[in-house]
Design brief:
The chain is α/β, with parallel strands linked by helices. Helices cover 28% and strands 23% of the residues. The protein has an 8-stranded mixed beta sheet. 46% of the residues are buried.
């Protein structure tokens, strides 16, 4: 029986790091081939082609690099050469990259993003097992047409849902409704179905989009500065169900009057924003002014979605429909 062929795109991150003895800290140093050599028996699962995209820590990921990565993925998935694709990535910004790809790459073939919480110099390096689970997922018929999947710690999550919740734990990537499945004995087992992923066709992304988190007695100087320096969209992590302190509420009025798109999400870890309250600065008043409620989305993902939507030329009503 012919084995599936998988392309693994290596971008860097902790999965590629070793401790540099001169500085006493981990830095990217391993090539894709060197990482792959740590995964025993992977050749029994699939034929692998390595693509060394970059060797960067994930905080160094940029929009330009994301657009380049997207282009490479689309080319690799075109035609019959590959049955699926795996991207290795640092975990600090993994959820943003995975969601960007989920929004902008439309393909039925499996696309899987993996990473590691421990570098290869540490005891219990998890990079090899996560990469193996990612390849097993990418070869599975159950991963077809599911959008981008994030695989770590043998758990499989949707890119549209997952977020990093702990700076240290191996099971740091969590979704509000739990993983969509697991990898058990080299097999992807799904727990639940997923809705069809959203897709936005665009070759450009609006970079002038900011994310602002609200705190008690916060004023509007950051918001006004963003507007006055050319920002096109602002995601605000509001309090609770989507409510703002009075001082920053005045800044929202100013931003909306200048045509800036405002998306409201919650600074809470879970739950959706909604027009539950009617006092000044509340979610209901924000909606009446023209702000867009972002549902259950976390701020970092809402920013990615707004950047992509504005880059695609969507107007206020179309963006509202997206969220």
């Amino acid at each position: 029986m012919k084995k599936p062929k998988i392309c693994i795109i290596f971008t860097g991150g902790t999965i590629s790091m070793t401790v540099d003895k001169n500085i006493g800290a981990a830095i990217p140093s391993l090539s894709g081939e060197e990482i792959l050599s740590k995964v025993s028996n992977i050749d029994k699962i699939a034929d692998i082609e390595v693509y060394n995209f970059s060797e960067i820590p994930s905080p160094h990921m940029t929009i330009d690099k994301l657009l380049e990565l997207r282009e490479i993925i689309m080319k690799k998935l075109t035609g019959d050469e590959f049955d699926g694709l795996v991207v290795t990535h640092g975990t600090d910004s993994l959820e943003e990259t995975a969601y960007f790809l989920d929004l902008t790459v439309k393909h039925w073939k499996p696309i899987v993003v993996v990473g590691a919480m421990r570098n290869s110099s540490e005891l219990g390096y998890d990079g090899a097992s996560n990469l193996a689970s990612g390849v097993c997922t990418a070869t599975s018929k159950h991963a077809i047409d599911k959008g981008v999947l994030v695989v770590l710690n043998n758990e499989v999550n949707l890119a549209s849902e997952v977020t990093k919740t702990n700076t240290l734990s191996l099971n740091t990537f969590r979704s509000p409704y739990g993983p969509i499945g697991i990898v058990d004995t080299n097999e992807l087992i799904l727990y639940r179905n997923s809705s069809s992923p959203q897709f936005i066709y665009t070759d450009d992304v609006e970079r002038n989009v900011e994310l602002i988190k609200t705190v008690i007695d916060m004023d509007d100087k950051l918001l006004r500065f963003a507007v006055d320096t050319g920002t096109k969209g602002i995601v605000i992590e509001a309090m609770g169900r989507g409510n703002l302190p009075l001082k920053i509420f005045e800044g929202v009025k100013y931003a909306l009057s200048k045509g800036v798109i405002i998306v409201i999400v919650s600074r809470c870890g879970a739950g959706r924003v909604f027009e539950s309250y009617g006092y000044e600065g509340s979610g209901k008043e924000l909606v009446e002014l023209g702000a867009i409620m972002g549902g259950e989305m976390q701020g970092v993902k809402a920013r990615i979605k707004l950047m992509v939507a504005l880059g695609a030329g969507f107007n206020q009503e179309e963006i509202k429909e997206l969220f």
